[in-house]
Amino acid sequence: MNAPLNHPLPLLDLDVLRTFVAISETGSFTVAANAVFRTPSAVSMQIKKLEDILGRSVFTRDARSVTLTTDGEMLLGYARRLLAINREVVSKFIVPDIVGVVRLGSPDDYGERVLPHVLKRFAQSHPSIAVDVTIDQSVNLRRRMDDRALDLTLLTHSARTSAMGGEVLLTEPIVWAGAKGGCAHLREPLPVSLWEEGCAWRAGALEALGREGRNYRVAYMSAHTAGQRAAILADLAVAPLPKSFLGNDMVELGPKDGMPEIGSYSLGMIVAPDASAPVKAVADHIRATFENFKETGRF
User: Fold this and answer.
1) What dihedral do alpha carbons 204, 210, 212, 213 form, nearest 10°?
2) How are beta strands 129-135 and 100-106 bridged, if at all?
3) Which of 50, 91, 161, 291 is the most buried (most CB within 10 A)?
4) Tens-digit pLDDT profile for the chain (299 aa)?
């Protein structure tokens, strides 16, 4: 029931609103619970409390999904605004007043898949720092760092090679990715989708094919991750990808499928030795993101 007008209106708990937004963005109580560091049962209790206060249902639930009701969609806009105002107010008193522009480099794969989420969260906690992003191949990003055209950069490289002078954030397997239910891996010669020269994934994949004596042809070449995914999903080719990049519409192909093991790659980060406070803040945020990924498997 709506609160009578002659009584003070209840106050909405920001922690509850944060949970509500997390569920609306992930479509899952379980995933949202991990994001807000609560148990699924605690999250359910928070939403029940919210619905009791408002006298309206904010989610429609079934066995497979969670969707916003019409009232929930209206609440979502207000919730995001209230949380943004809270971050702005708190940052004025708690977060050091760091102001500046940071020039960040990233390979295309992480620039497309990871950075948007990382920088969105960073902007919320550091609204006075602007981050300008350059997407390029790792060898070119290393060159830009040497020319002082970047303040810090992410780089991918073979796990057998050095981190190009930087720290290693993550090491994981490279696997062959194919379309779910596809047959590209059965064709002869094997159609592969690759990046341009200089890509650590390309080098490892071609070395593995050569080691096994597998005939192949480059059926699709693109400098962008989106192009690689398109070739895989259309079953035009198979492609080497980090294991964490596989989606529900892809499958990992291994020796039982006639595909050789590729090995691992590493993601490194180089920070300018004379890094400013804003640059250090971005670097610390990236480190924390990858530490969290190692624990949760999610960015």
Assistant:
1) 160
2) parallel
3) 50
4) 455 556 788 999 999 999 999 898 888 898 888 878 889 899 999 999 999 999 999 999 887 789 999 999 999 999 988 988 887 787 777 666 678 999 999 998 888 888 998 998 898 888 889 999 999 988 899 999 999 999 999 998 876 555 456 788 888 899 999 999 999 999 999 999 987 776 778 888 999 999 999 999 999 888 777 888 889 999 999 999 988 888 889 999 999 999 999 988 889 999 999 999 999 999 999 998 888 777 677 77
Q: Can you tell me the distance from the alpha carbon of 27 to that of 173, in angstroms, rounded to the nearest whole number?
A: 29
How far apart CA 43 and CA 33 sit, in angstroms, is 6
Tokens 């924390």 belong to which residue? 288
Residue found under tokens 């810090």: 152
List the one residue out of 142, 149, 136 whose CA is nearest residue 165. 142
Element (H, E) at 177: strand 167-179
